[in-house]
Amino acid sequence: MVLLLPAIYATRDVFTYSSRATYYGSDNSHGTPSGTCGYGQFGRTVNDGGVTGVSRLYKNATGCGACYQVRCTSSQYCSKDGVNVVVTDYSEGDNTDFILSSRAYERLARAGTKGAKELFGRDIIDVEYRRVSCHYTGYNLMFKVHEQSKYPNYLALVVIYVAGKNDITAVELCQEDCIH
């Protein structure tokens, strides 16, 4: 057991992918309510506004709600932990995987330094990232009726508060008396 601990500890800080990130401005530095994932106002404030738009990681909307730990690579300005973000939108940037809310972008910086000012001055930064489990206190999974639903002809659902790090690729609904 003692021999396994260094191996387990060494894998805790492994960031799997390298990329680039940028940010977008919005009211209160939160996300946008018009993201393509269909979250509406939830998409602005989930994860305390630590949200992101992605392109390659969007995966035809199955990437919506995925959580990533992102950190910038400039040790002079960037915190070693980075920031955890939730995918709420499809966005394309200049060879970037992440277009972060300005709130999330600011959290990439080391506290107590001029790091945030430096990062915002660069617009696009080098980052490394990994997929992480989503954690929502008091929630495990929730279905929300989308604002565009038009009873009785059209029902649109949005899956929110998906805990863990798996993608939901399909949902099957049936009436109470449905048999498979």
Automatic annotation (TrEMBL):
Residue intervals of the Expansin-like EG45 domain: 34-139
Pfam families on file: DPBB_1, Expansin_C
UniProt superkingdom: Eukaryota
Xref: InterPro entries: Expansin/allergen_DPBB_dom, Expansin_CBD, RlpA-like_DPBB
Entry-linked PROSITE patterns: EXPANSIN_EG45 (PS50842)
PANTHER family listed in its UniProt record: EXPANSIN-B3, EXPANSIN-LIKE B1
Protein name listed in UniProt: Expansin-like EG45 domain-containing protein
Species of the source: Carya illinoinensis (Pecan)
Lineage: Eukaryota, Viridiplantae, Streptophyta, Embryophyta, Tracheophyta
